[in-house]
What does this fold into?
Amino acid sequence: MNIIANENVYEPIVEFLVNAGHNVINTKRTELAGAPDEKVYERAVRDHLLIVTMDRDFTRLLRFPPGRCGGIIVAKLYRIPVDETTEIFRRHFLTLSEAAIRGKLVIMTRDGIRVHG
It folds into this structure.
């Protein structure tokens, strides 16, 4: 998959995605570092990228329609140690197919995933 990882995504999650064979743009290492959410979204729309983020603002469907980009995954995994967060993300991500994500909003929590759209 072609993915854009928002700057709040933990580095081990980005590493997992890269090691799993995905093409990942890490916004921390681009001109998008520190950019508003709208700029990250615009890039995802332009290049049809899947957005991976921990920013709940991306759950606002009217502001960030997932159907215009490659989809959006919001990992609502807060106040959990990084290694545990990475493991939860990995476990949930591996259950999703690209077809299940494309154009959808996927919300990950400790307890599971919800797919909208």
